[in-house]
Amino acid sequence: MCTLEKRGDLFLLTLTGDDEHRFHPDTISSVLSLLEQAKSQSTRGSVLITTAHGKFFSNGFDLAWAQAAGSQTGAVNRMHQMVESFKPVIAALFDLPMPTIAALNGHAAASGLMFALSHDYVFMRNDRGVLYMSEVDLGLPLPDYFAAMFAAKIGTSIAKRELLLSGKKIKGEEAVALGIVDSAAHDSVEGVVEATVSLGESLAAKKWNGEVYASIRKSLYPGLCAMLSLTAKIAASP
């Protein structure tokens, strides 16, 4: 489902298996537990890199599990359960006392894209993989904290329109041009991961105070962090 590996100062969180890495309640619980583990083991210079196996980084919530409830009311309740239980995962990433980097091995859709954008840096491949917000095509409204994320992290009205109102599947070079991701310069999973490891090592070498780093991060996104019940702590530097 997911693993956490520590390589020196780097934590490597990997969504495992060859499926779509959809966020089922069990997956959400597992990711949250590993983020809490990384936080508890963090030191000055720690960095988190998140990636996945296979064709997908994550294809969003487990809609099949929701529909298996057997009724419309049951499906709606299960969707609500996933939306609410996913919020602490996003909060944990914003509260993590270290820089965070997403290495997109493939498609990132819906809550999978939300998960990616919750990182400080996002790298993707230029040969395969798309960013896709499926809500407009599926007839699903955006949860409030999803909307706040896009308002905070996507800089232009054109980028928001292309991503949220067109149902467009955005490839790497266009994602960079729209300011959604930082890089799409590699043709393989290995290339993307190597690039994020290189960035991670350069950030780790700075040996920043993680609590101060997290506080500054949260102060940059006050509206979103308020929805996530996070507050920026004022800490004195030595």
UniProtKB/TrEMBL annotation:
<dbReference type="Pfam" id="PF00378">
    <property type="entry name" value="ECH_1"/>
</dbReference>
<dbReference type="InterPro" id="IPR029045">
    <property type="entry name" value="ClpP/crotonase-like_dom_sf"/>
</dbReference>
<dbReference type="InterPro" id="IPR001753">
    <property type="entry name" value="Enoyl-CoA_hydra/iso"/>
</dbReference>
<protein>
    <submittedName>
        <fullName>Uncharacterized protein</fullName>
    </submittedName>
</protein>
